[in-house]
Model the fold of this input.
Amino acid sequence: MKFIHLSDLHLGKRLYEFSMLEDQEHILKEILTIIDSENPDGVMIAGDVYDKPVPPAEAVTLFDSFLVSLAKRRLEVFVISGNHDSPERIAFGSRIMDAAGIHLSPVYSGKVEPVTLTDSFGEVNVWMLPFVKPAHVRRFFPEEEIASYTDALGCAVSNMDIDSSKRNLLITHQFVTGSQRSESEELSVGGTDNVDASVFEPFDYVALGHLHVPQDCIENRIRYCGTPLAYSFSEAGTDKSVTVVELGAKGDVSIRKPKLTPRHKLVELTGTYEQVMQRSYYEGTTWQEDYVRVILKDEEDIPDGMAKLRTVYHNIMTLDYDNKRTSASQSITGAKNVREKTPLEHFSELFELQNNQPMTDEQTAFVSGLIEKIWEGER
Done:
């Protein structure tokens, strides 16, 4: 039996105030092309369908269109809610949609029932466990000792009626200990949301959502497929893909990772203003149309830098500086000999602490003249 594993669509997301909706529509069409070539039995979407619990209407319309396209292909589709989703909104209409093969995870109630599919090797039980916190599980099992996410997931799994002689597939949305995060994910303080992979022992394959970088927790068994698009510059250069999961007889699982090509790549460019604006720097690349983060090495800020850079890099998203001032690790501590120093000396020290370099002669002359005017006014 073959499945396509997706997650973290984050429909409706804005990145540096750029709407990603057209890019998301493009990548969903690519996914449909892969689905047509792979001809799977089912599609799993492991949470974070939307970027917000109350998504914009355009995002809902886009997902509706995607589900209709999947239903027309007569696929079994499994959708769970993630930490960015409203469980109630994802669950809406689930009992009606079941008849069309669209299975939406209900709000967690302490009981999870599988959807059972059959192939030549027998039954495959597909379990849908939406994103849950310890408090969600504790509510239904007050007698259990649930102090951590591992306790919560362990309790939820142990209360599923799993027949280990059959093939079991779990779709869930959690952070498995030791996995690699990226900047576009929500972080918990001290890693309190960690789940130990051992709680997933009863399953032949675990389709994970939540983390944006594609990765295996346990090869061919527990996997994050990652986002179909890069949603932070920490993911620049990361290949995006969908995960194709094939289940043979019990214990026989293999995966493949067909690549996705975004409408616009995320690219980080570093250099001085003069360097990045030279035609030879960007000629022969797609950078002029890609989503770009420019990191300038100039010591002085470029006036109207974003506007000037946009004349070349039409989709520049953000401008940062990497110079002595921004890399300074010094901090301002208690001042010494305060009464013995002139105002110019105080200002010079402050300037050097903030910028990690002394003032130039021109800057010193300007500040000195400014101080004289201020003092003259006071006198």
Notes: Residues 339-378 form one domain.
